[in-house]
Amino acid sequence: MPGKLKAKIVAGRHLPVMDRASDLTDAFVEVKFGNTTFKTDVYPKSLNPQWNSEWFKFEVDDEDLQDEPLQITVLDHDTYSANDAIGKVYIDIDPLLCSEAATVISGWLPIYDTIHGIRGEINVLVKVDLFNDLNRFRQSSCGIKFFCTTSVPRCYRAVMVHGFVEELVVNEDPEYQWIDRIRTPRASNEARQRLIFLMSGELQRKIGLKVLEMGGNAVVGYLQCFDLEGESGLVVRAIGTACTLEKISTLPSTATQPSNSSPSKDMKDSLQAAPSTFGCRSTHSSPVHSASSRLSQGFSVSVPTLLFSGMGSGGSAGKEAGPLKALLRQQTQSALEQREYPFFTLTSFPSGFLLHVGGVVSARSVKLLDRIHNPDEPETRDAWWEEIRQEIKSHVKALGCHAVVGYSESTSICEEVCILSASGTAAILSSRFMQDGSLDVEHRLSRQPVVFTSGADRVEGDMGSSASLGFEEVAPPGCGFCHIPYDELNIPFPAQLTYCYCCRRNKVPDVLFTTIDLPTEANVTGKGCLIQARLCRTKKKGQGEGNATAISNLLPFLEYELHTQLMNKLKLRGMNALFGLRIQISVGETMLLGLASATGVYLTALPSPGGIQIAGKTPSDITYEQHISNMQKKINDTIAKNKELFDVNPPEVVEEIIGSPIPEPRQRSRLFRSHSESSDEVSELDLSHGKKDTFVLEIDDTDAVEDIHALLTDSPTPPGFYSCNTEIMPGIQNWTSAIQMFTSVRVFRLNNANLTNQGLNKIFTDLCENLLKSFYFKLRSLTPCCLCHLNFTVAIPEDELIQVAVTAVAMSFDKDQALENGRHGGEKTQIKAIHENDEQLQFNLELNPDSTKGLADISGSHPSAKAPSVDYSSFADRCSSWIEQLRLKAHTMRRGSIKTTSSLEKNSPLPEGRSRSLRSNRSYSGGSVAVVKMTPLSFIPGAKIIKYLGIINMFFIRETTSLREEGGVSGFLHSFIAEVFAMVRAHVAALGGNAVVSYSMKECVFMENPNKNQAQCLINVSGDAVIFVQESELEATSVQPQSATTQTSNGGEGT
Amino acid sequence: SVELDVFVGNTTIMDKEVYQLWLNGYTVNDAVKVRIDGGIMEECEASVEVLLSDTMDQYRTFQMCERLLHHPTKLANQLLFQIPPDRQAMLIERYYAFDDAFAREVLGKKLSKGTKKDLDDVSAKTNITLKSCRRQFDNFKRVFKVVEELKGPLVENIRQHFLLPDQLARDYAAVVFFANNRFETGKKKLQYLTFQDFALCAGQLINNWTLGAVDNMMEDMDVDLDKEFLQDLKELKILITDKDLLDQHKSLVCTALRGKTNVFTEMEANFKNLSRGLVNIAAKLINAKDVRDFFIDLVEKFIEPCRSDRWTSIDVNLYLTHYTNSAHILDTFKHHSVWTRYMGVIKSCILRMYHE
């Protein structure tokens, strides 16, 4: 019995009137954990009851503590009939199980009912006493930290990155059980909510066990998803990256963190014991259910870029179920095999970790769902994912890489058809983090200006030391990741290679697509922008295997077209790389939807993109020629305009310094401006680029017409706005503290049943475009601002419905940095100097010990501690061969980094400009409800995250049988989303936090039946609860950081 | 067609202009029209669809907020909407703001269902939408119900319970005071008076004639007139019943005013009538029915005669000053404090109500 859970019910407020006669309520509370229930007294006739209960104590196993939520039910006492439920609160107590997270949950939490929504609030206190775990063969994984953030969390450093962890649990969906026919919708919803809570807890515990076994203490980039498979069941699955994290005390005064070292030591102790207890997945040994037909079609699309996509490589095409089964059996209980997947869910990395990027790898497969016969044996679903991951792995090999970064998995389900997708970015990683070296992970995003400078400083320092030691390859920070990882003579797909425009030493591709965030140290020209490709394809209604085959036949074309669209739009903006690429394919009864979103940038290292050339197939008459040249002009004008808008002016300095063998981009644009005959232009282009396949769109091709149409109908962002779907926007650093997170959902009904592909495309494109336009309008008061982390999710909830849900954050920034700099020139330099001193100090604290550790590693003093799992032999070879080149490069690299520093200095914004806005905001504080900021990003501008309180993972169902009365579908969903936000904020505040970072709405399933006046919606959200302090306050609060922290929860303006 | 369209911010986004249109009772389509006419489309490069979507979103938000606005103190500690405190203050202030034209119409009426039913007439007369009229009426009623039973100063009670700025709280106090005492304001002769005229008078009455005015410690309400004072007012009758006193009073006032006004002769001729009028009003105030007619009496007995004689405001002021002061010099007149308390209010009211 290793834990005691204690709960105290203090009071309620704003309760609903339950007794019409007296306009009052006789409320009492049931507190339930596991099978134990306690009750408070009835507090009669009040809407603001004061229970002030005793401490209810539950003595439980820590395994249960991880799995179960604390369930609080508020009821209205009724002497004569059954007591009426007012609502429930589920409290995830996981954050209390980790010594470094929250210690108590205390505060007002909304009382939620699935039919009525929020009905008042309840004030509770929850604590956990954990006893020493004497049982080494434990099933729990208390103390493992979970982070949604897909980078090493701020205020931690990664000692080691262990690798991929995954798990899935399945169950019957209560909504589809026979009992659902006789119970109320409320009971059914609550059963579902509770089940998903339990499954999430179980999943997290099991993943934690895997992490323990690997010797880690945390999961970063934790991504949990639900598959509502309807009749066939409910799947909760999660992936993440196991790491060993170490807390860095950034505040001099918080140096008293007690929890620094103990967990990792515990881990090591438990390491021996772990493998034997790793029995939770023993189910693999039983044979795979053969009931489901596998429909993974062999197909691979290779296109003239680095997007290596396909729904299965050639190898997997004819694969039978047999070998796979065998494979699975082998994998059973083998911890090493687990790490057979060198996958990382991280999207940004400690500097020096990511060496080279190959390109996007993705795999999809179409499956027919079948009832999960035994919830304890989820091996069918496991096998499906294993298959996909194997495919990804083979793609990675083809790209000459050994790892996948920015890895994610998703599904789309329509009736019995399920599309599984996985994608990531093939890459080569430094082995430093796999071994027992440590690396400082600094949080440069939140403190943009200063840290950027320091980042560059540090990189330079790093390089200096390592290069002279020659112990490992260090790529030039600004361009190294662009250098091709694959063999030049054996390119897996047609691509144009040139020498890197930064270092001139290595080959780079002409275009680079990735799923990761833009590395902070990357050399970028100008700003970035959101680029979307949208596509709708009709399909015939079908059933069973026929339907699945039809879908899998359509998929590659869909992907190819999406890719072409992306490419065209990228070129139209004069850019050459995509980051954060996310391709979503959604399946419906009669159509497939594809939405690809990414952030386009101009990587300085890559060649300038060629223009878009329109050519007629049959140049017969003059009007036709005219038409083409008009269109060409339009396109060229747009490119020119975009280049100006995004400051894409490739630096001519490069040429002056090194002497470019490649023609200047300016020359090329000049070429475009002359509207000579298209054939001539092509040849000229050929000469100047040396490219065989510049984008030539043949206009006779109907697809091309569509493409051009799509290109030119994308409306430009209005002045003052920028947009991206990544963490940071290149070219913008001086964020103010004003942020506004929002969620927007639109559902479009296709009224005309017989729509063509073009018609559908137009509707879908307009839907997305109009959403963006709406955002620009609504957020106009924040300009100049950038919509960051724009995350579009598409779904086809019904035959004729298209649903698009968007979550993003609008962050405003100081526009006139140059002007401000001039005005405050004197002060600025002073303050900056101080900041730099700070940074220096941090280096001394953090970096130097690290580098000495690194030295120790080289000398081989910890050979046993090396990552036991990943087979990177080929990688090691590669590394050694790079070392020679590295030495040669060292000089150039150093020069490069100096250049970066100076250019960033120019951009560094005003610290006082930001603090000024903070001060004015603070005057508004003082409301009785603490402000909780929410953001999909991993940082809060102008603030420092000083503590992670635990993961927030909440699942809610809302149902109504009075849709009209609640304001129709929009009114219903509007209040539900507002309620979800409110509950997230309240739980974060109860944990003692003042913000949620890496927030995402992972599921928003909306169903309606207007005829019956009914609607139902399921929402799943997640994020990391944190405490942050404004940077301006950080400087002032060196004495009492704790108290200052709690106060800042009111500080800053609302978010 | 777009079937569902929502936008929810972590900080609730509210546009002041749209809020005002909502408060004014415009339909979504009318509000969009007004916004288009305001030139927002050119300014923000927005389309009609964008405007429509935004307006709908905001209208929904306001509707959801409305039940919170009924109890403004709840707005600060509710969890559903994260609204910065300055925004909360704006929401409340604007929600409770009312049109003087509307208030003028219902001033002194019973805040009952019957009155609410007649609001369409008020709407037609004032050109304020029925929706807005209903909101304003409900606000009156809500404030009235809450403060009716409360002890202590009226204005302060309103300010604390509804978190309203001082001036608005005073206006509400006037509305509540009028409704409680059912002052007649609808007669034709009173039509020329504005709400602000009455509000000032109400302020005077509340500050001087209620029980709370004498003693703040008194555990009583500001909404009722001080009965004892009304009783004492009867004693003032001596000023008109005692002939000597009346003559003496007249000669004192005439001496003081001679040569200082252009309407001296008219004043001299009318003195007894005017004095009788004012004193009779005082003497009758003990009857609830006569309290209701207070303003009409002031107009009929004093303002109208003066106006027909073309007195200026300066004349009225001069006359009332000396009329009040002279009474204190009268030998046999003993009710100085009651006289001061009465005439102070009467003078302020008449001066405000005297439109030349």
UniProtKB/TrEMBL annotation, chain B:
InterPro entries: FIBP
Example GO BP: platelet aggregation
Gene Ontology MF annotations: fibroblast growth factor binding
One GO CC term on file: nucleus
Entries under Pfam families matching the protein: FIBP (PF05427)
PANTHER family per the UniProt record, alphabetical: ACIDIC FIBROBLAST GROWTH FACTOR INTRACELLULAR BINDING PROTEIN (PTHR13223), ACIDIC FIBROBLAST GROWTH FACTOR INTRACELLULAR-BINDING PROTEIN (PTHR13223:SF2)
The protein's name: Acidic fibroblast growth factor intracellular-binding protein
Organism: Triplophysa rosa (Cave loach)
High-level lineage: Eukaryota, Metazoa, Chordata, Craniata, Vertebrata
